[in-house]
Every structure is written in structure tokens, then in C-alpha cells.
Write a structure and sequence with these properties.
The chain is of the alpha+beta class. It has one domain (3-44). The protein is 61% helix and 13% strand. It has one helix and two strands, in the order H-E-E. It has a two-stranded antiparallel ribbon with strand order 1-2. The N and C termini lie far apart (51 Å).
């Protein structure tokens, strides 16, 4: 693997992980009473 390909792969992986985290945070913040665990499973909190 060339250094350029490794750099691009690392950048896209970091971007994907960041986007996933933002999406989970947004989904959790949008629903006031449920907790999203990152796998699309929600649990009702009391």
C-alpha cells in the first residue's frame, strides 16, 4: 500500500467514525426519552 492510499484510507475511516458518532448523538438528542446505543436499539429510560 502506498503512503498516499494509506493516508486517504485513514482520512476516510476517521471521517466515517466521526459521522457515525454525530449521527448517534443527533438521534439521541432528537428523542427526549430514549437512549440509542449505537446499534439502532433503543431503551426506554425512566
Amino acid at each position: 500500500m502506498t503512503p498516499l492510499r494509506a493516508t486517504l484510507l485513514s482520512f476516510f475511516m476517521l471521517f466515517a467514525i466521526t459521522a457515525w458518532g454525530v449521527a448517534i448523538y443527533t438521534a439521541d438528542a432528537a428523542t427526549g426519552h430514549t437512549v440509542v446505543d449505537g446499534y439502532g436499539v433503543t431503551a426506554l429510560t425512566r
